[in-house]
Structure formats: structure tokens, C-alpha cells
């Protein structure tokens, strides 16, 4: 596993064209700011569960450069998964199509228990499923609703490793390179390592690096 500390877009600019087999990522969207401003969600400012300070957002105005960079580094036939909420998905879909991706569908991550909010409390998140060129999913029987329990007391917005493992197993093979340019707790990279993929990622925050390194040590002993 290789970890880099930089801005995601400038780090991606250091990677060669068509050098990556799969990108899975979860940027800190502008819309998170909105969730943090209302009611009980202000508690997320410093996640009570983790005591980590909440990270800076990645502005919507930077999405075109991010999506262009991801498209460029992906191999000609490859998949790209982007964690996203119901607001930002409408911003991203047309931008991603403009840079060349095919949008297939939002995959629903069912967290299997109720979360925050007042108007139908949140139980799911979207994972936008994009394709560059054509690549077959490894298992055509997997449904578009994925049920995995959310992570408690983790890094802010940490995603479950088994959920990431499902996406990685679907869209890459052993030995291939999986990249996450906003790795956070390192969940994508840990899942990739466990599945014998090569894993490389970037995050701007010291906390993310400390968390991911600790997890890697726990998994591999290295
Ligand atoms: C939503 S979190 C990712 C959580 C991750 N999926 C997990 O399961 O733990 C977003 C991450 O992006 C990082 N970040 C924010 N702005 C960034 C930037 N411009 N470049 C790279 N990383 C950035 C934050 O430090 C944070 O760790």
C-alpha cells in the first residue's frame, strides 16, 4: 500500500496516463457543510464518536478537474465508483459524462439501520457507478442494493471495508491497481490489500495517514 499526502488533483497529475485499473473514492462534498449546519448534525463538527476534527470540503467547482484527472489515469476499460449524496449526484453525473465516463446507475448502500435527519431518517447512501470504455463486472448476480452495517466510532464518514471489498471484487482482479485519492481511514486501500490488489492513495490530512497506517499494520503486521 502506498500513501501520499497532497491535494487529490495534484497527486493524480503525478500518475501516468492509463495506469490505474480501478478508482473508488469518497470526497468531502460541499453538501456535507449543509448537513453540519442543521440541527443535531452540528455534532459532526468534531465527531463525538472518533474525536477527529472534521475535514475541509472539496468544492463542487473543482469537480471537473478531479473527474478529468481520474478519467486520464484509468486504463481504457475500467470502472469508477464515487460515494455521493442525493444532492451532489445531480451535479456530478453531467460533469462525469462530459469528461467521457458512461454513467450506469447509483448503487444503494443500505446501512441496515436508521441514521440522522427529520424527514425520513437516512438509512442509505449512493455510490455512483461509472465506466470508462467497457469492462464486465466479475459477478453479474450482485444486486444494486448492497447491505453492510455502517461503521460506528470510526474516522468521520468511514465506509465499511466489506462494502469496499464487494466493489473491488466486482471491478478488478488480483494484482491490479486500485486507487483512492481521498482515502480517509484507508478503508478502500485496506480492502484492496486484503483482496491481493495493489493499493495506492492520497489524503491531505495527517489524521487520515495515521489511521490508515495503523490499520495497515493491524492487517499485514508490516
Ligand atoms: C469523506 S472522507 C473519506 C472517508 C473514507 N472513504 C473512509 O472510508 O474512511 C474525505 C477525505 O478527503 C480528505 N481531503 C479533503 N480535501 C482533500 C483534498 N483536496 N485532497 C485530498 N484529500 C482531501 C479528508 O482529509 C478526508 O480524509
Kindly describe this structure.
- The chain is an alpha/beta fold and 222 residues long.
- It has one domain: Rossmann fold, CATH 3.40.50.
- It has helices at residues 8-12, 30-37, 63-73, 88-99, 161-171, 187-194, 206-220, and strands spanning 2-4, 20-25, 74-84, 102-110, 124-132, 145-147, 177-180, 198-202.
- The protein has an eight-stranded mixed β-sheet.
- Helix 6 links the parallel strand 7 and strand 8 (198-202).
- It starts with a strand and ends with a helix.
Short summary of the structure?
This protein is an alpha/beta fold and 222 residues long. The protein is 32% helix and 23% strand.
What is the CATH topology classification name? Rossmann fold
User: Radius of gyration in whole Å, from Cα?
Assistant: 16 Å
Give the biggest sheet: 8 strands, mixed
SS element count, helices: 7
Model regions low in confidence, pLDDT < 50 over at least 5 residues: 39-52
Pattern of helices and strands: EHEHHEHEEEHEHEH
| Number of structural units classed as domains | 1
Distance between the amino and carboxyl termini: 10 Å
Bound molecules: S-adenosylmethionine
Amino acid at each position: 500500500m502506498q500513501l501520499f499526502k497532497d491535494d487529490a488533483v495534484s497527486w493524480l497529475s503525478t500518475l501516468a496516463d492509463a495506469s490505474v485499473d480501478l478508482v473508488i473514492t469518497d470526497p468531502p462534498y460541499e453538501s456535507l457543510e449543509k448537513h453540519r449546519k442543521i440541527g443535531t448534525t452540528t455534532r459532526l463538527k468534531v465527531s463525538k464518536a472518533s474525536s477527529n476534527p472534521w475535514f475541509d470540503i472539496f468544492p463542487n467547482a473543482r469537480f471537473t478537474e478531479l473527474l478529468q484527472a481520474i478519467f486520464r489515469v484509468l486504463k481504457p476499460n475500467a470502472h469508477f465508483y464515487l460515494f455521493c449524496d442525493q444532492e451532489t449526484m445531480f451535479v456530478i453525473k453531467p460533469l462525469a459524462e462530459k469528461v467521457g465516463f458512461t454513467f450506469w446507475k447509483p448503487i444503494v448502500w443500505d446501512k441496515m439501520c436508521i441514521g440522522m435527519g427529520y424527514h425520513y431518517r437516512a438509512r442509505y447512501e449512493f455510490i455512483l457507478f461509472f465506466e470508462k470504455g467497457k469492462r464486465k463486472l466479475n459477478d453479474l448476480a450482485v444486486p444494486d442494493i448492497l447491505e453492510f452495517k455502517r461503521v460506528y466510532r470510526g474516522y468521520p464518514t468511514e465506509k465499511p471495508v466489506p462494502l469496499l471489498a464487494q466493489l473491488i471484487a466486482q471491478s478488478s482482479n488480483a494484482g491490479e491497481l486500485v486507487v483512492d485519492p481521498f482515502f480517509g481511514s484507508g478503508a478502500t486501500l485496506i480492502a484492496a490489500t486484503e483482496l491481493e490488489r495493489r493499493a495506492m492513495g492520497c489524503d491531505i490530512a495527517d489524521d487520515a495517514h495515521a489511521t490508515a497506517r495503523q490499520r495497515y499494520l493491524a492487517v499485514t503486521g508490516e
